[in-house]
Amino acid sequence: MDDHINLLQIAKELFKRFKEDEISSLAAELAYFFLLSLFPFLIFLMNLLAYLPLSSDVVLDFVAQYAPGNTMKLIENNVRHIIETQNVTLLSFGVIGTIWSASNGINAIVRAFNKAYQVEENRHFLVARLMSILLTFAMILVILVALLLPVFGREIGLFIFRAFGFTEVFLTIWNTIRWLLSAVILCIVFTGLYFIAPNKRMKISEAYPGALFATVGWIVVSLLFSYYVGNFGNFSVTYGSLGGVIILLIWFYLSAVIIILGGEINAILSKNSNN
């Protein structure tokens, strides 16, 4: 009974904070930086694929799991264009553009989390920017690992299957597990983000609840929004050729709301534990 009361209290506090902490405005700002960093990141990633045992189709298949509706066509067209014109200049631009845009997004997350914990940002500007850049590199690394796991995971599964003579059921279970690893990695990224970004000393265990919420929430919201866009939302009627961009922005906005809410949940739990 107490657990239900606590959950109800957290929900009420979260609803109250949604307006007080201007979560909607912060999420809109974050969505803008997400959009700015998307294509520079793709430029960087596609040029990097030349040095990795991955094809552009693997990246697109990974994005297609979550990207809603017409956005995949928009992303794919740009990716194909990037591949056709890839060179060292594009790689350099991709690195600089990704780091700068994504670190601006991380800065927006830092401000949102500091507001959630009701603390001031007193870290030096260079320290804060360096932290944002390091988190950006960490996110790029984790995304690469998430892309590599399905490829190498399949080979590992086949090796175990042949070595031990398991049945076909093993391969089915293994394929399910290796795709779930992407969600696990995502949860680890969120945990690190909630642990490092706020200007507050905390334990890893205090960052985990929000990370779990953000992981599950982001996957569910992405899948539901993708289903809505595919079956009910006809954005091209209202926005014409900009429909794909608008869908992408809404997806980024919903993702940003989920990320910020995860930080707010951690802040609420931290406040309740100190009372």
What do you see in this structure?
It holds the Pfam family Virul_fac_BrkB. It is a multi-pass membrane protein. This is YihY/virulence factor BrkB family protein. It comes from Aeribacillus composti. The protein is an all-alpha fold and 275 residues long. 84% of the residues lie in helices and 0% in strands. It has helices spanning 2-20, 23-48, 56-64, 71-84, 88-117, 125-164, 168-196, 204-231, 235-239, 243-274. The two termini are 20 Å apart.
| Structural class computed from helices and strand pairing | mainly alpha
| Whole-number tally of structural domains | 1
Strands, count: 0
Strand content: under 5%
Topology as a string of helices (H) and strands (E): HHHHHHHHHH
What's this entry about, in short?
It contains ten helices and no strands. The protein has 275 residues and is mainly α.
Topology:
Blueprint: H1 2-20, H2 23-48, H3 56-64, H4 71-84, H5 88-117, H6 125-164, H7 168-196, H8 204-231, H9 235-239, H10 243-274
Q: Keyphrases for this structure?
A:
10 helices, about 280 residues, YihY/virulence factor BrkB family protein, mainly alpha, transmembrane, membrane, cell membrane
